[in-house]
Design goal:
Layout (H helix, E strand, L loop, with lengths): L3 H18 L6 H23 L5 H17 L2 H19 L9 H16 L2 H13 L3 H21 L7 H18 L5 H23 L12 H16 L1
Helix pairs in contact: 1-7, 1-8, 2-7, 2-9, 3-9, 3-10, 4-5, 5-7, 5-9, 6-7, 6-8, 6-9, 9-10
């Protein structure tokens, strides 16, 4: 029975709602300090995932091609529009806390947490792992981090953060139920390279959340689609 995606989705949903409700009581020092911790955690997790790469050139090439495709189709801009649409729709019913955040700052942070929640290597691997083995421990562990991350970001971004639970749940369920078909076609090297590309995205996300460098993380998402095919081709050509 698949339960991990539901637990993870619920963690984001209730974390965001709780954070938005407690926004006025949340000390400013927590709002500014905790995202730095989340960003550092994302970067630390990325190092572990990248270190698992079976073929480093595969990760580099996938990242480059993915970023090229994302930039050409204006992927981040499209996700930003969806984020703005979600914000406007939710705030008609539940007004966001008045924190003085600008539209540009909202979209910047919103896109970053979409990637963190929906496209992290941990979430993708955890979903596929549960689909094959029934072990939900990876997604349950991720849920603890997502709960507090959603709560902190909701204190500034409002209830719109809760809407991320919908695409996150859909993606994780699709991966979990599709794992039975996908994983038998893969090799350990392909899975390792896939995780490494996910780690690359998480590293860029960590830099963005910490405010060190605003990487166009959403435009890098297509790299995940290139990872396994390029890994398989690399083994076939170079052995």
């Amino acid at each position: 029975m698949i339960i991990g995606p539901y637990i993870n989705g619920a963690a984001v949903l209730f974390g965001a709602i709780g954070g938005a409700m407690l926004a006025k009581r949340m000390p400013e020092r927590l709002r500014s300090a905790m995202p730095l911790t989340f960003g550092a955690a994302s970067m630390a997790m990325s190092v572990i995932l990248i270190n698992k790469a079976a073929h480093m050139p595969v990760m580099v090439l996938s990242g480059i091609l993915g970023a090229l495709v994302g930039e050409m189709i204006y992927l981040e801009k499209g996700i930003g529009k969806l984020g703005n649409f979600a914000r406007n729709g939710v705030e008609k019913i539940l007004p966001a806390p008045k924190t003085g955040i600008t539209q540009e700052e909202f979209l910047e942070k919103f896109v970053a947490i979409i990637v963190l929640f929906c496209a992290s290597g941990t979430g993708i691997f955890g979903s596929m792992h549960e689909g094959m083995t029934g072990d939900s421990s990876v997604l349950i562990a991720k849920s603890f981090l997502d709960f507090f991350t959603a709560a902190i970001f909701a204190t500034t971004l409002g209830y719109a953060v809760a809407t991320i639970a919908v695409p996150q749940l859909a993606i994780q369920l699709a991966l979990a139920f599709g794992a039975v078909l996908i994983l038998p076609l893969t090799t350990p090297a392909m899975q390792a390279d896939f995780s490494a590309v996910g780690g690359l995205l998480m590293l860029a996300t960590g830099f963005r959340i910490c405010g060190i460098k605003v990487f166009p993380v959403a435009n890098m998402l297509p790299a995940l689609l290139f990872a396994m095919p390029i890994s398989a081709l690399w083994v076939r050509v170079f052995g």
